[in-house]
Amino acid sequence: MLSFDTFARKWKIDPAPLCPVVERYPFRLNPYFEGLVQETGDAVWKQVVPDVREVLDPSGFEDPLSEERLSPVPNLVHRYPNRVLWLVSDQCAVHCRFCTRKRRWRSGPPAAESMPDPALALDYISKHRQIQDVLLSGGDPLLLAPEHLREILSRLREIKHVQIIRIGTRVPCALPGRITPELAGVLAEFHPLFVNIHFNHPVEITAESQRACSILANAGIVLGSQTVLLRGVNDSEEILAKLFHRLLCARVRPYYLMQMDLTAGTAHFRTPISTGLQILRKLRNRISGPAMPHFVVDLPGGRGKAPLLPNMIREIGSGMMIVQNYLGELCRYPLLEGEEEGLLSEIGNFRF
Q: 226 near 198, Cβ under 8 Å?
């Protein structure tokens, strides 16, 4: 891992103004991902280099999704009835400056012995039979040693009511050399298992990251991607169209386009919600259907993810609805008798 002083000297930036930021939110960057930076201030730079606005931001919440409140035992979040989020690692390949869990960052190298004790989480999961789906996150689960990952997965598979295991990771994107046939072989022992990878920009789709995705896909693991909509990084139709197309070519299906969480120290990354809606509307029918993600906002207070859709219905009346297609054309579509009232109610045609 690169120290911030080493990075600052290499890129000829004055570290002094950023020291308070790094003290509060530690800098973490590996040589591979640093190699994707093409110039100061580019898309990768903005994601990983500290910014004074992180400590000047008066808005946001330390824990915007109320994960701590929704943790019945340490490192386990039970937000939805039939599934839980289990934070099995406290280390990441890089520290993304927009991270929703900045409150949990710490300095120091990753260490297998830092893995949280799994006993309490496993006991909770085993006693709550409604839990069918476990999402492993962190930190990054794929930074754990393969034998420790196998231990977690095998003990989950011993719980009969756990049917689905998912892993959220940035490793295939940010540290792809970590993905080996050995690691993929461990994961393949525990199907059905799904891996959701965090990609934000087309420059992150390299030969190395594609190779990492292929190793996982060849092991029969279903791959999805999660992208955060970031101001000045990827908030354009052209960038996201390229990213989603390249992901599909890498055998990774775009799953989520996430509106920025309301995390303290991240307001400078946040786009208007209308930006995401406009981008989705422009992408519809311009890229392959499987390349279109769900645009979602994770509601504050742990109230769950809500999909946001561009409103293509422009008018309803006289037995017709007027729909705007991807070319901007207005098209008439006949409604069933008596359908207008139910449709108006469903799409929420009201003002506050």
A: yes
DSSP state of 138: S
Report, as residue numbers or ranges, the catalytic residues: 79-80, 83, 92, 96, 99, 101, 261, 298, 305
- pLDDT band of 350, cuts 50, 70, 90: very low
pLDDT, tens digit, 9 for 90 and up, residues 53-99: 999 988 899 999 999 999 999 999 999 999 999 999 999 999 999 99
Q: Cis omega before residue 192 (within 30°)?
A: yes
Q: How far apart are CA 254 and CA 67, in angstroms?
A: 25
Q: In this structure, which amino acid lies at residue 285? A: N
Q: What is the mean pLDDT of the chain?
A: 94
Q: Give the C-alpha separation, 64 to 140, whole Å.
A: 20
At a CB cut-off of 8 Å and minimum separation 6, what does 73 contact? Answer: 120, 121, 123, 124
Rounded CA-CA distance 138/231 in Å is: 24
CB 143 within 8 A of CB 97: no
Q: CB of 35 within 8 A of CB of 206? A: no
Residue 26 is given by DSSP the state -
Q: How is residue 137 annotated by DSSP?
A: E
**Helices first, then strands: H and E counts in the chain:** 13, 12
| 344 DSSP β-pair partners | none
The pLDDT score that the predictor gives to residue 328 is 87
Contact 212, 191 (CB under 8 A): no
pLDDT tens digits, 89-137: 999 999 999 999 999 996 655 444 455 679 999 999 999 999 999 999 9
Q: Is the dihedral of CA 119, 123, 126, 131 positive or negative?
A: negative
Scan for tokens 């390949």, then name that residue. Answer: 93
pLDDT, residue 116, reads 60
